[in-house]
Amino acid sequence: MNITVFPKKLSGQVTVPPSKSVAHRMVIAAALSNGISEITNLYPSVDILATMDCMRALGAKIDFDGDKAVIEGIKDIPESAVLDCCESGSTLRFLIPVACALGVDTQFIGRGRLPQRPITPYLEEFPKHGVSFEYNNTMPFSTNGKLTGGKFYVDGGISSQFITGLLFALPLLEEDSEIILTSHLESKPYVDITLGTLREHGCQVEETKNGYFVKGGQHYMPFSGRVEGDYSQAAFFKVANSLGSDIDIAGLSEKSFQGDKKIVEICEKIVYNKNGGLQPFDLDCSDIPDLVPVLTVLGGFCEGKSYIRNAARLRIKECDRLSAISQCLNAIGGKVTELEDGLEIEGVGSLNGGEVDSFNDHRIAMSMAVAATRCTSPLKINGAECVSKSYPDFFEVYESIGGEISREP
Ligand SMILES: O=C(O)C1=C[C@@H](OP(=O)(O)O)[C@@H](O)[C@H](O)C1
Ligand SMILES: C=C(OP(=O)(O)O)C(=O)O
Predict the structure, then answer these.
(1) Which of 169, 201, 226 is where one domain is finished?
(2) Segments of the chain with pLDDT less than 50
(3) What is the CATH number of the domain that holds 115?
(4) Which of 175, 245, 320, 398 could be bridged to 315 by S-S, CB 3.0 to 4.6 A?
(5) Are 238 and 229 contacting, i.e. CB atoms less than 8 angstroms apart?
(6) pLDDT of residue 288
(7) Ligand 1 atom 8 nearest Cα
(8) pLDDT for 193
(9) To test the ligand 2 pocket, which listed residue (389, 391, 394) has its Cβ within 8 A of the most ligand atoms?
(10) What is the per-residue pLDDT across 138-169, written as a single tens digit (0 to 9) for each?
(11) 89 ligand 2 Cβ < 6 A
(12) What pLDDT, on a 0 to 100 scale, did the predictor assign at position 261?
């Protein structure tokens, strides 16, 4: 579906959808628990539906109705399973260790960019712990064998999702385990969300000076709760506000562990200079990768050069996000230069509109819809249906706050 967005500032109230990151974790932990958990404020994004289907395939009973899921933890572990991770990196990287810890011989299926996204730490470490892979740099691929504990050496710079996956799996093993980070852990706030979920389910993890120690033989206890609002989605509306819209954003928890909460501080700190223009910024984005596309849009309207730093990992997300957002903004009159691990954004004050591709990436499509609020002519976003990965009704919400769009199948 292609969507043309007509330039218009937005105003009204939005309740942000529940956090995708928190929801993945709550569903997985509930499915591993001994008993029944109830999760409310669940939102059927394609990624979350994928995680629920995978946990069903591993033996959990999940009854999802409205915004509530009743999850009965796995009782009978299947010998083998096929897990369709769709395009979700989280689902894939969280569930490889989980399936292996349960001893399920698993075929992993995926599409879009997922087959190209790395799973290197597992390929390197798991054969030393009883698991073999049939893997040809793409999907489907298969795992065989039951994971055993011990030391896991993991590069912290590819994706924090490997640490989360291991943290979910290691309490289930008989032996104690240690995760040893061989380089700085990027996206650490996401691991902190995982630790919070594990605590809620009664699992203990100790932080060490270079990683995590996890006792074996632990049991997940059921836990019922509500998924908190998503700061990475709130960021689109926050940035729209910094660009002149007037959106009242509801549904966020101030106590959240989400690293993307940083968007609040970033937008509060953005100051207007004496001509009413926005001051440029220089940001280390190692802990907030998902904010980068929309922050690039913000930089496009600042007066002077803004910088996004420590963001090399963005090249291995749903698309190469550094390249995609640069191409999109440059196609409509922006001045963005790719750096090896970041971006230089020269503010231009106003963008023209025209036509861009979503690169099949939800965060690129939504960022461009925010850019459109300040374009001088309509902006067509091709392949805009990709928002369903995290925010299926994004464009309906956008219309509800005064956005004007037309859809083309
Ligand atoms: O653990 C998570 O929920 C996520 C971790 C981050 O990935 P990386 O750790 O690969 O940066 C983030 O980009 C992704 O959207 C969600
Ligand atoms: C990168 C993302 O998700 P995942 O890694 O789970 O595919 C995202 O939602 O921006």
Answers:
(1) 226
(2) none
(3) 3.65.10.10
(4) 320
(5) no
(6) 98
(7) 159
(8) 98
(9) 389
(10) 999 999 999 999 999 999 999 999 999 999 99
(11) yes
(12) 98
